[in-house]
Input
Amino acid sequence: FTYGLKQVLVSCGGKQSFYNLAQALLNPGDEVIIPAPYWVSYPDMAMLAGGKPVIVHAGIEQNFKITPDQLEDAITDKTRLFVINSPSNPTGVHYTPDELAGLGAVLLKNPQIVIATDDMYEHILWEGTPFKNILNLCPDLYDQTMVLNGVSKAYSMTGWRIGYAAGPEKLIQKMKTIQSQSTSNPTSISQHASLAALTGDQTFVKEMVTTFKQRHDFVLDALLKIDGVKCKPSHGTFYIFPSMQAVMDRMGIKTDIEFSELLIEKAGVALVPGSAFGADGYIRISFATSMDNLEKAMDKLQTVLGN
Output
């Protein structure tokens, strides 16, 4: 897709891009449909803008992906924004082209809804099929879709704070006005570095993805050796999102927060409880570290949890 200069806004990270969108778009009482598990900031940013998060749950049984019927059932006359993050933080799953087309068909019938497609993990995908977002599958959604992306993940530039949004000109200009009263613009040094990353040789990205896939496979195999763990393979990102509910029940642990605290205290392994992402009983594991660290961590988890 082609975007004019007035349709693009560079911000201080993907987080600010979504914040700008929520502030520019939402009025008090507007509803925001957010599939769960979700990135932790979506609901809070919606509420900060006066919006009401409408959480649509998709557990491990449906591979953490909502269906067109679920989306349609969640839409009301107050729905103003729909958020989709694929590949997903925290689950690592990616919607297939058919699944995206199904969601897109529902949204085409609701032109009042703006779609925020968070493509931050676009390049960290190993399932063999090229990355596609909902706009790629449903080009007629162009006028109601805001594409959000950045350089933090694919180029390991989290501290450089560069994200960007591309979409309808009127909405982008409102987002620009909001940003002008907060950070104004990202630092020019970060913008030049990001341009070099985006336009330079991408070979290292492929090498990084290959390494992440190897780490993912190791962590998945180690998790499935623990009695009670349920886990689906990730399609990308550097996260995996196992259900630990049966393990918690076996150990008499009531919440995933208590479970995560236990693992810090007994195993020295830091994890994020699934409840932070709207999914009780799960944990998010990041494998964005060395294989040596992962081997030590999984050995400790197996020892503490039983294998």
Observations:
- The CA atoms of residues 32 and 53 lie 5 Å apart.
